[in-house]
Amino acid sequence: MSDLLDDAARRASTYLEGLRSRSVEPAPSAVGRLDALRSTLPEQGRAANDVLRILDEIGSPATVASAGPRYFGFVTGGSLPASLAANWLAGAWDQNVHFVVGSPTVAVLEEVALGWIQDLLGLPPAWGGGFVTGTTMGNFCCLAAARDQALLGAGWDVDENGLFGAPDVTVVVGDEVHTTLLKALGLLGLGRRRVVRVPVDAQGRMRADALPRLDARSIVCLQAGNVNTGAFDPIREITSRARDEGAWVHVDGAFGLWAAVSPATADLASGIGDVDSIASDLHKWLNVPYDNGIALYRNPEAARRALSMTAAYLPQGTESQRQPCDYTPESSRRARGVDIWAALLSLGKSGVIDLVERCCRFARLFASRLSEAGFEILNDVVLNQVLVSFGGDETTRAVVQAVQREGTCWCGASFWQGRAAMRISVSSWATTEEDVERSIEAIVRVAGASRA
Ligand SMILES: *Cc1c(COP(=O)(O)O)cnc(C)c1O
C-alpha cells in the first residue's frame, strides 16, 4: 500500500508541475490514445501499480489542464494545495458522512467549515446549510425548501402528498437565469418552462421595475454573478419588496457570491443577508477539488423538513446534534467538508479576500489590454468575467477555436445578447500576473493571425 500511494503522489506531483508548460487543451494525439482504455474487462485483475501506471500514462496526457494557471474556461477553479492534500487523506479515511456516527471527525469539520463560510459572507449563525455536489444541487435543495414552505403556508404538505392537486406556486426568474436552476425546477416538479421570466438590462440584471406581483406562494430566484458578464441582480431592492409580500427569495451565487467577502466588490452582493436561501459552488472560486458546493438556508428547519428522512435504525438529528444528511439530497456521501475546511484554513480570511480581489484585478487586466489591442469588451468588467468580441461572429468564433488550439491558455465561446464572444473567467488560485500576460500575448497574436 505504501509504495503504491507514494507512486500515486509522485505521479500527481509530476503531473501538476507539467501543467505550467504543457498545452492547456490536450493534444489530439493524446486524446486519440484514450481508445486504448476501451477494452473489455479482463478475466484476471491487474496489479494495483499497473492500474495506476495505465491511468497516468494514457489518462494524464489527455486531461484538460484546468488545474493549471491558464485555464479560463467556464468558471473553473483549480485545487488549493492544502485542499488537494486533505482530499487525499480523506480518501484514505473513506468516511461516510451521512450521520455523525459515520464520521465524528468529518461531521465536526463540516460544522466548522459551514460556520466559517457563514461568517465570511456575513450571514448570522442561525443560518444553516449542507454540502452538495455543486450549485445545481444547491439550487435544488434550496428550492425544495422554498417549495415546501410556500405550499405548507397554503395548507398543503408536498412531501407527503406530492404536487398532484396542490395549489399553484409562482416561480419568478430573470431572463438570464442559469440553465441549471431551471433543471432544478424541473426535478422538483415546478417545471422548467412554468416560470415567470423578468426582463433584464444590458448586463443581464433582472429589472426590479418589471417584477410581477408576488405573494406567499411565490419564489423569486435571483442571480449573484451572471455566468457571462458577472453582473448581479439588484438583490437588496428586489428582496425588500419580495419579503414585504411574503415571497421566498433564493439566490444562485455559484461564483459571484464570493464577491461578498471583499470590500472592493461587496456592494454587488448588498442585501445577501436578507434572502431566504443561497446556493454556491466551492469548486469554482474557492478552489476546492470537485465536486463541492453548498446550500445555505436562513431557516434550516425548512430545509430539514424537505430533505430529512426517518427509519427505525437511523439516528435522528437534534438541536444539539446536526445530522449532515438532513440538509442534502444524498444519504451516503464522501467527506466533502474536509476539502473545504482545509482550503479555508490554509487561506484564512485575508487569503480568501486576496483570491477574489486578485482574480478581479486580472480580469480587468485582460479587458484593458485586449481593448488597447483593438478588440471590443462586451461587458462591464465588475468581477472576474470578461466578454471579448474580435469582430463579426464568425471571426470571434474562429479566434476562440484558434486560441484553444494554440494551447497557451483556454477560453470558452459564448453568445451575449445577440453577439458571439470569447468568455474569459479568471477563477484559479494558481494564476499569476505573468500567466495573464502570457495569455494576453497569445490571444492578441492568434487573433491577429486569424484576422489576417
Ligand atoms: C456553474 C454555475 C451553476 C452550476 O453549478 P454546478 O457546479 O455546475 O452544479 C449554476 N449557476 C451559475 C450562475 C453557475 O455559474
C-alpha Rg (nearest Å):
23 Å
**Secondary-structure element pattern, one letter each:** HHHHHEHHEHEEHEEEHHEEHEEH
Ranges where pLDDT stays below 50 over 5 or more residues in a row are none
Coarse structural class: alpha/beta
> What are the distinct ligands in this entry?
pyridoxal-5'-phosphate
Helix content, binned percent:
40-55%
Please give the order of strands in the largest beta sheet: 1-7-6-5-4-2-3
**Taking all residues together, what is the mean pLDDT?**
96
How large is the share of residues in beta strands? 5-15%
By DSSP, the count of extended strands is 11
For the report, how would you describe the main beta sheet?
7 strands, mixed
Shape: globular
Give the CA-CA distance, first to last residue.
57 Å
* Contiguous helical run count: 13
Protein architecture, described:
With 452 residues, this protein is of the alpha/beta class. It has 13 helices and eleven strands. A hairpin with a 7-residue loop joins strand 8 (376-377) and strand 9. The longest helix has 37 residues, at 336-372. It is globular, with a radius of gyration of 23 Å. The protein starts with a helix and ends with a helix. The structure holds pyridoxal-5'-phosphate. Pyridoxal-5'-phosphate binds at residues 75, 134-136, 178, 180, 225, 227, 252, 254-255, 281, 293.
